[in-house]
Every structure is written in C-alpha cells, then in structure tokens.
C-alpha cells in the first residue's frame, strides 16, 4: 500500500488498459472530441476568405450568364417561328413597292418587293460557290436600272459614273437612276466552267417589272460569301453595294432582290433569314454557351467542396496528433547507401 501511494504521488501508477495500450481513459469515460478547439476554424483564415468570396461571386455570375445565353437562344427560336409564319403570309400577300421597304431591316427582310426598270445587259455577274438543295452552283446576278429615284435606301456611288454613262445607251435613257442587284436564279456547276456559264440565259431587254424577296447586303462570314479577291472577270464573291461600287459606273442600292421567277434553266433562289435572326449556327452557339456556363457553376461548387474536405481532413488529423510524413530527400546516385537501404536491397541469395 505504501508503495502504491508513493507511485501514485510520483504519477507512476499504471492506468487501466484500453485496446491493449496503457494510459488510455478508463472504461465508460467519454472520449474527448477531436473537434475541440474548432476544426473548421480554417474557414476564418485569409486564404479561405478569398476562396469563399470568389465562390459566392462566381456562382451567381455563371448562372446569370447561362440564363442570358439561354434567353438569346429562345429569342432566336421565337424569331425563327415568326419568320416561318411571316413567310407563309408573304407568299400569299401582294408585293409592295421597293420604296416602301427600304432601308432593309430585320422586319422588311424577306418581304416581297417589286421594282420596274431595265436590265444592264453589259454587267451580268456570276456569284460562285453557292449551294442549293445540297448541290454546288452559282447565282446569276443582273443589275436592274430602276427608273427614277425610289428613295429610302442607302447607295454607293462611283465618282466616274458620268464618264461610264456615255458608253451605255441604257444609262443615257436612265441618267441618274440607281441600280438594284437582282439574283435571277441559280445554276448547278462551276462558274469557271465555260460550259456551265454558257447555260446562263441572257437578261430580257426593254422595261421589265421584277418581283421577288428583298434581301439585305451580304457581309463577310455569311454562308457561301467569299470576301477574298482574285476572282475572274465577271464574277462577284459578295452581293453588296460595297463590292459592286468598283464594278459598275453608277449608284447601287444597299439591298438586293431574289427573283421569284427564274427563266430557262435557272432555279429560283429562296430568301435567307436576316442576319442575327433564325436558327443559324450562332443560335446553337448560344445554346452551347448556356451549357458551358452552367457547367462552370457546378465546377466551382465541386472545387469548393473538394478543397473544404481536404482541409477538414487535415485539421482532424492535426487535432488527433497525426502529422503527415515528410517526404524523404532523394539520394544522390553516387552517395553511400545507409545500412537500412543495403538491407532492403539485399538479394534473397545473399541472406541465405
């Protein structure tokens, strides 16, 4: 008893065993919580303040951008449906004078227009690399010298218009008249092939009235549009007043018409949707961006939980007194191995 009292005063009395180890808490004594001291206090560190603020800002931004891109796609779908309805009504509606539809807007693009004038038979152009019904071909474009000034549309003038008009009898009759580009139709084949070009019917002479769908001038990047130079004489890569200004000696309307009636072997060219409307490739790009922004939002949440879990596990280990092992320093190729290394690399035959 005296010995046990002495050992007790010196702190040498062995405690009860728990799990085969001495010094553990007695049976029935609650185990101290490993979260004592606050395992999640790392969330209050400056590093985690930055992570939390970034997460709270990034998620709403990603959701807003995804919703905005989705709304743009839905607008394109609504516009496409509206254009289908308008096209069906316009096919039945009477054509309107060109002056009532200029300048071309998203609303007036595709509407039936009518214009009266004379074709410039000396400036008929071929527009190569245009597809119709899955086949390669080219447009046949002829300039219609509209009698008088229809007004309302922008035009591009060449400074040498007066000099060029002296060489054209039709220009004398319609001095000061602007020209309306008219796509009379489409032909299959290559515009560089003389045999295909020979099938192009000549434009009618005299005064004609053209009826067709009004279209806005083409821009670089459009379907089939070629803005590169180097085309042969008599060909045009982009139907626009800016492209025609150096090819004809008179003013050209910043619009064109695809004729609803194609003569000879020509096929009528259907009107296209105005730029920025309809279900084109850009509309599906908006849909793709919608998915990307929502994926970004999910990725931000995933990364936050991953960092949080790793930090919490590290904090728990430290609270339990478990420290991660330090990586061993690499051994130089020529350095002497320690006895332990030699023992681990010794062959079985050497130990026999």
Automatic annotation (TrEMBL):
Protein name as it appears in the record: SURF1-like protein
InterPro entries with a match to the protein in the record: Surf1/Shy1 (IPR002994), Surf1/Surf4 (IPR045214)
Bilayer disposition of the protein: Multi-pass membrane protein
Entry keyword Transmembrane helix: yes
Cell location: Cell membrane; Membrane
Protein family (similarity comment): Belongs to the SURF1 family.
Gene source species: Streptomyces yatensis
Region (Disordered): 1-32, 320-352
Residue spans of biased composition, Gly residues class: 12-26
Annotated TM spans: 48-68, 287-308
Family annotation (Pfam families): SURF1
Key words, A-Z: Cell membrane, Membrane, Transmembrane, Transmembrane helix
Biased composition (Basic and acidic residues): 337-346
Classification via CDD domains: SURF1 (cd06662)
């Amino acid at each position: 008893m005296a010995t046990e009292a002495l050992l007790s005063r010196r702190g040498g009395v062995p405690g009860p065993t728990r799990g085969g180890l001495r010094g553990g808490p007695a049976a029935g004594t609650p185990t101290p919580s490993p979260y004592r001291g606050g395992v999640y206090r790392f969330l209050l560190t400056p590093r985690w303040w930055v992570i939390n603020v970034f997460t709270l800002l990034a998620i709403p931004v990603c959701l807003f951008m995804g919703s905005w891109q989705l709304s743009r796609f839905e607008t394109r779908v609504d516009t496409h449906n509206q254009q289908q309805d308008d096209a069906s009504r316009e096919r039945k509606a009477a054509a309107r004078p060109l002056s009532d539809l200029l300048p071309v807007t998203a609303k007036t693009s595709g509407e039936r227009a009518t214009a009266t004038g004379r074709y410039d038979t000396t400036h008929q152009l071929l527009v190569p690399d245009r597809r119709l019904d899955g086949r390669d071909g080219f447009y046949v474009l002829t300039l219609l010298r509209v009698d008088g000034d229809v007004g309302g549309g922008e035009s591009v003038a060449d400074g040498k218009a007066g000099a060029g008009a002296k060489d054209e009898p039709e220009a004398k009759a319609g001095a000061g008249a602007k020209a309306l580009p008219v796509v009379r139709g489409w032909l299959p084949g290559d515009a560089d092939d003389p045999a295909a070009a020979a099938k192009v019917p000549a434009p009618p002479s005299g005064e004609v009235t053209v009826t067709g769908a009004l279209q806005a001038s083409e821009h670089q990047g459009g379907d089939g549009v070629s803005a590169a130079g180097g085309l042969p004489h008599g060909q045009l890569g982009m139907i626009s007043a800016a492209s025609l200004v150096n090819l004809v000696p008179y003013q050209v309307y910043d619009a064109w018409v695809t004729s609803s009636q194609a003569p000879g072997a020509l096929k009528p060219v259907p009107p296209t949707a105005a730029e920025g409307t309809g279900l084109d490739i850009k509309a599906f790009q908006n849909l793709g961006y919608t998915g990307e922004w929502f994926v970004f939002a999910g990725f931000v949440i995933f990364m936050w939980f991953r960092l949080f879990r790793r930090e919490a596990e590290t904090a728990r280990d430290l609270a339990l007194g478990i420290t991660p092992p330090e990586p061993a320093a690499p051994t130089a190729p020529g350095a002497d191995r320690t006895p332990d290394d030699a023992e681990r690399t010794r062959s079985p035959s050497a130990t026999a």
